[in-house]
Amino acid sequence: MAPTHSNDDVDHYMGPYERWVFRSELGRPFSFPAIAKGKGQHFTALIDSGAHEFTPPETLSVADPNSGEEREVKLRYPPLWSSNGAGRSITPVCFGDPSVDDGGLAQTLHAVCQLGPEEMQPRFRVNFPINPKAWSEFYIPNPTTAQWPGHRRSEKAPKAIIAVIDDGIPFANRAFLDAYGQSKINYCWLQSAEAAHDISAVPFGKEFTNREIDALRQIHGQDEDVLYVDAGAVNARLPELGTYLSRHTTHGAHVLSVAAGHGLGPRQALMDDDVHIIAVQLPNTIAWDTSGFGKEMYMLSALHYIFERARRICESYGVADDALPLVVNFSYGWSGSRHDGQSEMETAIEQLFTQRNTDANGNSRENSFLVMPTGNTFSDKLHARLSDGHFVDGAAEISWNLLPDDRTSSYLEIWFPEEVADGSFEISITPPKGIVLDSAGSISLTADPNLNEGDARQFQNLVIDGKIVGQLSVDKNRGTRWRCLIALVPTIEHSTGSRVAPIGRWSIGVAKSNALDPLPQNAAIELWVQRDDDPSELKTGGQQSYLSHALSKRTHLNRDEYPNELEVVRGYGSMNGVANSKSTIRVAGYDQTTGRPSHYSSAGALVRIGTTLNPTGAQTTVCAPSDRGPSRHGMLGGGSRSRSRSLLVGTSGAAPQVARQMVLNLAAGKGAFEGMGDTLQGINEDEQIRRTHIKARLGHKKLKVEVQ
Description:
Elements: H1 16-22, H2 33-36, E1 42-48, E2 59-63, E3 70-76, E4 90-96, H3 104-113, E5 123-127, E6 160-166, E7 185-190, E8 206-209, H4 210-220, H5 224-231, H6 251-260, E9 275-281, H7 296-316, E10 326-330, H8 344-356, E11 368-373, E12 383-386, E13 395-402, E14 410-415, E15 425-430, E16 442-444, E17 457-464, E18 467-477, E19 481-488, E20 504-512, E21 525-529, E22 546-548, E23 584-591, E24 605-609, E25 612-616, E26 622-629, E27 632-633, E28 635-638, E29 645-648, H9 651-667, E30 677-678, H10 688-698, E31 701-702
Parallel strand pairs: 6-9, 6-10, 7-9, 10-11, 11-23, 23-26, 26-31
Antiparallel strand pairs: 1-4, 1-5, 2-3, 3-4, 7-8, 12-21, 13-20, 13-22, 14-19, 14-21, 15-16, 15-20, 17-18, 18-19, 24-25, 28-29, 30-31
Helix pairs in contact: 4-5, 6-9, 7-8
């Protein structure tokens, strides 16, 4: 009989973010409503089997927390896609466990950890739960045509497919109709909507095909407000969905209109009917915790869904082997993570796109692309790099500054080079002047021997005056690279209690166990503060913390110059933390009037090697306009309702312009980047430093769009 565990044992399975977010004495009260308001019974997770291909079972045998008797927990998977029978090492999964309130979560997680042969027992990341109303009671993973007819064949066969993953998708907007007045959106999955009460082809949420969208438009005509309420796309009783789509505009409305719509005027390239559309709307509360925690299962499920539905489109038109070109725009991201392409999400992205870019004969092809923004944090002081030169007697120090009135948790990640040995560094944290921790806040790169499942890790609570205000932890992420995560509670009293993190300058120390040991050649310790603003105006109350260092004097962070020496706190290396896979097209933003990078547009990393600056890690691929001028910020797009307009500032608005041009090129049988200019045109070869900076910020290609 399998051993039993109480929910107090959840540390045995959870990583640092999961522990912080799911434990009520830590960060749970300050998390998004889906977690903060109570214990769920429908959970999502990623199962990671590392270098092994692994297909998890459909049921788990789990020991009951009270009786010890075995019970069965059914696992669900979204519509999964694979090419030529190829497997995967990262699998999105969800499960309903009615025993969670009795301590059953730990038991279920233990059973997940025991999957597979001993040499490849997988690890997992628990994500945020599913609202019970969104749980599909009659889910059929691979329905036949008789069970579920799927999409309606359009009058014009597709030459390419464009897909968008975002929030607030206005699927009934007339910008997405073809010449016959029918929807070009073949499939649209609202992941947090109330589930259908009959057979469903998605495990949670609600799916609309073009047949259903056309039927809704027939019933409601041009009254899109009533249409979305009737369809269940607006529901105030579901916090993960809410009334977000009732707004004049949403992030998803702008992005989808720019990537795949029409009607924005003569300056926008026409989108022919032979480009078909797939859309996925993520849960709206996905913006509540900008750490990146809780989202990956939904994101990876969205990609699998798009690939699987694209296959159905191909098959219905007699196109074999997923041969229709596919461009996916995902204007989203976070600032933390590994930034080396080896996170769970980036590994899964690389597997999916590599497989679809390989034909049945094993030959490479370029017909599948993921377009993502570089991010908007270049000037926000969220990234720092500590090299050997910043250590004095084996120790270095940097400041983390917390602002007043922050109603959300703050996170700082410290990543060590992959080559560093266990126990080779110690990290310490000191509160602002005049405040002391109840016990020393320091931790070394070593594992707690009692936490013997999952990644090697160690946790320490940060306590002031008997109240927990934070968590200091280390974990060997995916068994390959040490990370230190520091999480702090809000800086203002919350409705659930009086735990408050002191505002001001927290000192972060990094010390070598042996002061004489150098860092690996050309390597450094990288720090990223997680973005903590409110990108979708969901009233999270976040205030952005930031880094500072005695050697970082300038506040503009190289905005107007191209220095040969970079500061400790820098914008270079602020690349979107989930956009580092080789297959990802990374899009930066520039000012249409000046041609210069937008001041916020994130960049690839630069490091000094010898006498020159060199790019390292994932770099910017291409740039597109994100501002119309120095005093005309943002770009125009479509709003939530037909014929309405929106304005979006940021690289999220630049990415769909590139995605649109790429899919138009592919539909016309051209190269994906045809017609895009050279960012270095006219720059002298002797201006090597300037060329290096420009490529890090703007990439090699430049999409030129007429000024709006």
